[in-house]
Amino acid sequence: MDEIQRFYLDYPLQVPCLWNLSRKHFRVSLGEGRFVKLNKFENRLNGRDLKFYCWQLRPRHVYFSVLNWLFPERVGKKYKARYCVPLNGEYVIDVDAHLILFTHKHKVDDHWYVCNECLDMAKRMTLQLCEIIQRYYSRIAVVFSGCAGFHVHVMDFDYHDWGSYRERDPIWCHSASRFKFTKLLQKQTHVFDRAHFTVSVDPMRVVTVPNTLNGKTGLICRFIGSPKNLETLSIPEILELSKTFPVQGHLEALEGSSMGCNGPMKSCAKKLAEAA
Q: What burial class does residue 199 get, using C-beta atoms within 10 Å of its C-beta: 0-12 exposed, 13-18 middle, 19+ buried?
């Protein structure tokens, strides 16, 4: 049993109830460009199912869709997305420290591969962004990415606020509304380069599931809560809450190991994971 498998067996993986997991499309990264859609095993996943598959597959990263779907098991190509019936979903922005760097003593931790000063700058940018978003929406959830910054989830985002509905192309509606809101935010913040702008407007994107493992650093993608919660926590405190096991080298170094999913999934193994 390697460190990742032991983490998902021992750690009480709890995704906050802000997210309706049964409407999410899940994917996991196994390394070397290999991705697995978890919804192909079960149409609807709950927290226990997610914990079991993470324990079984030992993923380096765990993602879910920003949109909620009526049929999450059908999600695949964008041009077929209307047959999956998109319902609604949060708007997510990645805030990374490299987007705007001030002069500082850049010191990367030998175990966790993060710089406290960089994260502090990302925190300040995140708080500024949240303050601007609160002019339009009130339900904001902040998640530490486990690496270089934070994910800002706008939970009460509604595409009807920014665009009209097209029954034949509902994905266009979600994309157009996110584009308009992102353009509005771009004029007031410094968190969007071309890559971050593109991913923010994409309704088909996936984002790291809160409280799962970041395979690059070995840190937990820790759910922080509201912007006020982020403001009260220092970077050392956030890192302390996010630490699992120190790794000598990135977790991708473990990618040569087997998936641990040879043969059928046995119910006794699932009960073991659920009992943990």
A: middle
State how far the alpha carbon of 35 is from the alpha carbons of 81, 246, 253, in Å: 19, 25, 17
What angle is formed at CA 19 by the lines to CA 190 and CA 233, rounded to 5 degrees? Answer: 50
Closest C-alpha among 97, 40, 90, 101 to residue 65: 90
Domain coverage including residue 158: 3-275
Report the DSSP beta bridge partners of residue 34. 31
The per-residue pLDDT for range 159-194, each reduced to its tens digit, is: 999 988 888 888 999 999 999 999 999 999 989 999
Domains identified in the chain, total number: 1
Q: Is 130 in contact with 154 (CB distance < 8 Å)?
A: no
Give whole-number Cα distances, 258 to 19, 30, 56, in Å: 31, 10, 11
Reported residue count of the chain is 276
> What are the strands, taking DSSP E only, across 97-200?
140-144, 149-154
Average pLDDT, the chain: 85
pLDDT value at residue 98? 82
Region for residue 249 given its phi and psi (left: phi exceeds 0; alpha: psi -120 to 50; beta: otherwise): left
| Contacting residues for 261 by C-beta, under 8 A, at least 6 apart | 56, 57
DSSP 8-class letter at 105: -
The pLDDT value given to residue 110? 65
Q: What is the CATH number of the domain that holds 42?
A: 3.90.920.10
